[in-house]
TrEMBL record:
Upper lineage: Bacteria, Pseudomonadati, Bacteroidota, Cytophagia, Cytophagales
Catalyzed reactions: UDP-N-acetyl-alpha-D-muramate + NADP(+) = UDP-N-acetyl-3-O-(1-carboxyvinyl)-alpha-D-glucosamine + NADPH + H(+)
Main location (coarse class): cytoplasm
Name the UniProt record assigns to this protein: UDP-N-acetylenolpyruvoylglucosamine reductase
List of catalytic residues: 171, 245 (proton donor), 342
Protein source organism: Aquirufa nivalisilvae
Signal peptide range: none
Gene encoding the protein: murB
């Protein structure tokens, strides 16, 4: 390891309110920002912080903090975007885990590399994207993912994971289950198309393009449409604390799905690729149960999108968690559907 790399400064009892998009004011017993794996390696070798858990933080956009953290919170700020390989049709682009996801998407769009433009304006960082297998408007990370490199916390080596090893599912991956707490994702590589084929099958995108009289959309047009849709539906975390979609859209087996559709003929539903299961929008269920726009103190459900729980200012993580539990119980009672949280609870 290069001797020129210095041990990064570790802060104590550090407020991470500005580092989570819910804006929850909790403190980390220890906090450090790392810009390379080598820096984190130095921290591990020092042994100074081995007596507490290490919690990794990217954009803080998919976490609900319910208490002060007796841990070393590691803000992953590994930067850089580079082309590592290309041919006539494809380009392999690698980004550091700390790169802001939307910035990465805009970088690829500006170079006319197609594949992730439908994922514009999703909050968070590149490193968090494969953990959640983030997706929107007909596209998921796994569609363009090539590989990632992750630091093994037990033997201090950098390992490579391909699509199979990542075990991608709906908002799921190996790193949320068997690999949880065992790795730090450092770099992610995507295989993108040089020959642009805009993905416009999602209805809302078609509506925006039609309204603008765009009949042959570029990937920039698609990105702009997605940004417009998201801004019209979702609150800006800089204005109202939130983490985007709080719940996963439930997928049901055919028998339960059929029963639900017979009882509620107007319920939206979608096929699940590679399965006979049927997906239902959690936001619709929550809205039908009367929660849309609900507010108790500073914890609430967004007035435009029922899938989004919000902090209007001084709500605690425990208050927002309690609201989410009330909603889950309500949906189970009314529809017989068990909602799962998409947000990580700490």
């Amino acid at each position: 390891m290069p001797s020129s790399i210095a041990l990064p400064r570790v802060l104590e009892n550090y407020s991470i309110q500005s580092l989570n998009t819910f804006g929850i004011d909790v403190k980390a017993r220890y906090f450090v920002e790392i810009r390379s794996i080598e820096q984190y390696h130095l921290i591990l070798n020092s042994g100074t912080y081995s007596h507490v858990p290490h919690i990794f933080l990217g954009g803080g956009s998919n976490v609900l903090l319910t208490q002060d953290l007796n841990a070393l919170v590691v803000k992953v700020a590994i930067d850089g975007i580079e082309v590592i390989k290309e041919d006539d049709q494809h380009v392999w682009v690698r980004a550091g885990a700390g790169v802001v996801w939307h910035d990465f998407v805009q970088y690829t769009v500006s170079h006319q590399w197609a594949g992730i433009e439908n994922l514009s304006l999703i909050p968070g960082t590149v490193g968090a994207a494969p953990m959640q297998n983030i997706g929107a408007y007909g596209v998921e990370i796994k569609d363009t993912f090539d590989h990632l490199q992750a630091f093994n916390l037990s033997n201090y080596t950098l390992e490579t994971f391909d699509t199979t090893a990542c075990q991608f599912g709906y908002r799921e991956s190996y790193f949320k289950h068997e690999g949880k707490g065992k790795y730090l994702i450092a770099y992610v590589c995507f295989k993108l198309n040089k020959v642009a084929e805009a993905q416009t099958s999602y209805g809302a995108i078609q509506e925006v393009l039609h309204a603008k009289s765009i009949t042959h959309p570029s990937i920039q047009d698609v990105s702009n449409a997605v940004i417009e849709i998201r801004q019209s539906k979702l609150p800006d975390p800089k204005e109202i604390g939130n983490s985007g979609s709080f719940f996963k859209n439930p997928t049901l087996k055919v028998a339960q799905a059929t029963e639900l559709m017979e009882k509620y003929p107007n319920i939206p539903h979608y096929p699940v690729t590679g399965s006979s299961d049927i997906k239902f929008p959690a936001g619709w269920l929550i809205e039908q149960a009367g929660w849309k726009g609900f507010r108790e103190g500073d914890a609430g459900v967004h007035a435009k999108q029922a899938l989004v729980l919000v902090n209007y200012g001084q709500a605690t993580g425990k208050q927002i968690l309690a609201l989410s539990e009330q909603i889950k119980q309500s949906i189970l009672s009314k529809f017989g559907v068990a909602l799962e949280t998409e947000v990580n609870i700490l």
